[in-house]
Amino acid sequence: MKAAPFEYVRPASLADALELLAEPGPETRIIAGGQSLVPMMAMRLARPGRLVDIAGLDALAGIGRGDGGIVVGAATVQAEAERSPLLAAEAPLLAAALPHVGHVQTRNRGTIGGSVAHCDPAAEILLAALAMRAEVELASVRGPRRLALRDFAVGAMMTAAEDDEMLVRVLLPARPAGLAIGAAVREVSARAGDFAVLAAAAEIGLDEDGVCRHLRLAVGGASPVPVTAEAAERALLGTRADTDAVREATRLVAPLLEPWDDQRASASYRRRVAPGLLARALETAAERARSPEE
Amino acid sequence: MPVPVTISVNGRAVSDTVEPRVTLVDFLRDRLGLTGTHVGCEQGVCGACSVLLDGVPVRSCLLFAVQAGNRSVTTVEGLDDAILLDAFEETHAMQCGYCTPGMLIAARGLLSDTPDPSEDDIREAISGTLCRCTGYVQIVEAIALAATRLRQDERHG
Ligand code: FES
Ligand code: FES
Fold first, then answer.
1. Which fold has domain A7-53?
2. What per-residue confidence (pLDDT) applies to A172?
3. C-alpha of residue B102 to centroid of ligand 1, in Å
4. N or C: which end of chain B has fewer CB within 10 A?
5. Residue of A nearest to B4 (CA)
6. Closest to A90 measured CA to CA, from A218, A216, A183
7. Which CATH superfamily is B82-156 part of?
8. How remote is the CA of residue B122 from the centroid of ligand 1, in Å?
9. Fold of domain B3-78
10. Which pTM was predicted?
């Protein structure tokens, strides 16, 4: 369980990091927290010839307002995001996902961008960001580009980033104004903090009459990339999202799932449990929206 | 190719050259002889290798030593924490001792941040550290006892 030899570089700036990525030569991977990459290297599932460590680049860390929403630097440490009042207030769904990510020790190292770029089908940060219809900004020596996260996350552990590109920012849309918002993430895992077998994310916005005017629903762990449950969202908008309506609407996610069998669960388990898990996430989110003081 | 690295370990600056692929836990144990930090799975699952990096718990098998360059590491040997250690002893919070360094580091991380933890906070803080003897009840008890005593100490001291 030891990584193969590699060369280690700590660039002084983002520009230097991008130069290194653009150079021909050994397979170069970006490392920030390394909480997924290091175990993959230890198991020799990844064998990069060179690591470019961006953890010290301040320009890539931090959470702020911008672009009409919230901008999260790719190298922002998860534990820092967990403590951010701005994120809790303005991106409650991502904030609800963070406590489910790994354990304290990994959240103290792992980054938001690292999790998004790793693109694990059951990862909670990816799930919440997809549900929120996030965008991502990539950088390379050829210049920046911006794309919808759903076009970036193309498959299990696969992204649309070219070899010379690096994820630099995650852009989260602003929460809708004038609504009571509630958000929740629910998951099935062997132990709290272990890899999720299935995860569901829900964010709801209710107007003063308790009618649902905003909805963000997604399920992870049952398809190569978490799916957004758009049909369920449409079915519930304009309703009061009562229990029966929620149970019925969340079933609409079933045709989108492409579950598999693995050591954690069977495909049929995933298929049967996913809609109910999404319903529970939504019910919790709705309770939080109705009693915001909690 | 080995590269130079300087890490503050338990308050002492250590300079050495190290191959980039050497993990922090191997560096601590094999190079510095600090075998208090245990190593189990080497893939981030068991938590036995936990150390404090700039004061917060991390897994030293998920970190190459070069990544800790110019940062400060505290291992169980550097935990100057008689109240916490006594609490573990008194409540019989260790059996074989394999998980104990990781548990102590997790407890230190929790108590630095949350001096008055609930039982849930304690369970959450140690959830990433496996005890193969499954003595979790006593470990939770030990951390709660240490928290109470540390708060009393604070008031009197
Ligand atoms: S040895 Fe590091 S987590 Fe198991
Ligand atoms: S005391 Fe034996 S592993 Fe915890």
1. 3.30.43
2. 98
3. 9
4. C
5. A8
6. A183
7. [2Fe-2S]-binding domain (1.10.150.120)
8. 20
9. Ubiquitin-like (UB roll) (3.10.20)
10. 0.94
